[in-house]
């Protein structure tokens, strides 16, 4: 197996504690969509997060149409995506924080200079950049090496589609065996698995009663080589991937 040269980080709730903030902001729009389509069900932010963690808003709307049996026209998707993005970015620019311990690990990785660091997210590029900017992470990631399934691809998509990982590897000139992905969600981890990238799972942001379940999902279902609860474990996780 080739040596690991490249680390591909998910952003939301992997680098930045953003998912809860984002889902609070978009629950209102999701409920508007459901009401408009005559569906007597309403989401809270946490309930929306539980059902659709790891998906961008376009992917979430597709999942809503399938779950509740209604349709949206293409132009409706576009309008709602634009509205949601504005709400979320405004919230993130005020409140986003880095995941505990991640800044120290990024600093070490940059100082070592051994690995190429990139971000591979489902979220819109402007949202990812807002999160990175707010938590002062920009020094670790070049602007053209932050990839978005919603913005970077010819046709927008969302994890678990592996397209954004495949696209990122093509742009970076690396093969799956040279990379490791770091993901916190089933959809993100599944995307990495489908792209044949070795995986490190992360369960730090989950509530205590969810952590063991997600640990099992990431390890047994998605094939994570190591699942970490805190970023302090990252050196051990990376060593486990390299040993494997």
Structural key phrases:
2 domains, 244 residues, 12% strand, alpha/beta, Rossmann fold, 10 helices, two-stranded antiparallel ribbon, six-stranded parallel β-sheet
Structure description:
Pfam families: Hydrolase. One of its GO terms (molecular function) is phosphoglycolate phosphatase activity. This protein is α/β, with parallel strands linked by helices and 244 residues long. The protein folds into 2 domains: 158 residues, HAD superfamily/HAD-like (Rossmann fold, 3-Layer(aba) Sandwich); 77 residues. The protein is 51% helix and 12% strand. The protein is built from 10 helices and 8 strands. A 6-stranded parallel beta sheet has the order 5-4-1-6-7-8, sandwiched between helices. It has a two-stranded antiparallel sheet with strand order 2-3.
Count of DSSP-assigned helices: 10
Kindly name the structural category.
alpha/beta
Rg measurement, Å: 17 Å
Provide the domain count.
2
CATH architectural designation of the largest domain:
3-Layer(aba) Sandwich
Unreliable segments (pLDDT under 50, ≥5 consecutive)?
Answer: none
User: What is the fold named in CATH at topology level of the largest domain?
Assistant: Rossmann fold
Q: Which band does the percent of strand residues land in?
A: 5-15%
Strand order, largest beta sheet? 5-4-1-6-7-8
Q: How far apart lie the N and C ends?
A: 9 Å
Outline:
Helix content is 51%, strand content 12%.
Describe the SSE topology.
Blueprint lengths: L5 E4 L6 E2 L1 H18 L8 H8 L4 H12 L5 H22 L1 E2 L3 H11 L3 E6 L3 H10 L11 E3 L14 H10 L6 E5 L2 H9 L4 E4 L5 H14 L4 E3 L5 H10 L1
Parallel strand pairs: 1-4, 1-6, 4-5, 6-7, 7-8
Antiparallel strand pairs: 2-3
Helix pairs in contact: 1-2, 1-4, 4-6
Pfam family, one: Hydrolase
Organism: Trichodelitschia bisporula
GO molecular function: phosphoglycolate phosphatase activity
């Amino acid at each position: 197996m080739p040596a690991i040269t490249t680390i591909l980080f998910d952003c939301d709730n992997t680098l930045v504690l953003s998912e809860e903030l984002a889902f609070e902001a978009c629950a209102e729009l999701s409920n508007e969509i459901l009401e408009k389509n005559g569906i007597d069900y309403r989401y809270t932010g946490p309930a929306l997060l539980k059902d659709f963690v790891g998906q961008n808003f376009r992917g979430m709307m597709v999942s809503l149409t399938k779950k509740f049996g209604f349709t949206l026209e293409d132009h409706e998707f576009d309008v709602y995506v634009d509205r949601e993005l504005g709400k979320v970015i405004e919230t993130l620019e005020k409140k986003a924080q880095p995941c505990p311990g991640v800044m120290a690990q990024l600093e070490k990785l940059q100082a070592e200079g051994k690995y190429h660091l990139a971000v591979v997210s489902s979220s819109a590029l402007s949202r990812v950049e807002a999160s990175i900017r707010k938590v002062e992470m920009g020094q670790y990631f070049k602007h053209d090496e932050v990839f978005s399934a919603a913005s970077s691809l010819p046709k927008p998509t969302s994890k678990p589609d592996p397209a954004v990982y495949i696209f990122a590897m093509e742009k970076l000139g690396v093969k799956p065996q040279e990379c490791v992905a770091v993901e916190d969600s089933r959809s993100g981890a599944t995307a990495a698995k489908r792209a044949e990238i070795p995986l490190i799972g992360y369960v730090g942001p989950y509530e205590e009663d969810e952590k063991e379940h997600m640990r099992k999902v990431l390890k047994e279902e998605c094939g994570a080589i190591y699942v970490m609860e805190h970023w302090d474990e990252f050196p051990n996780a990376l060593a486990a991937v390299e040993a494997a």
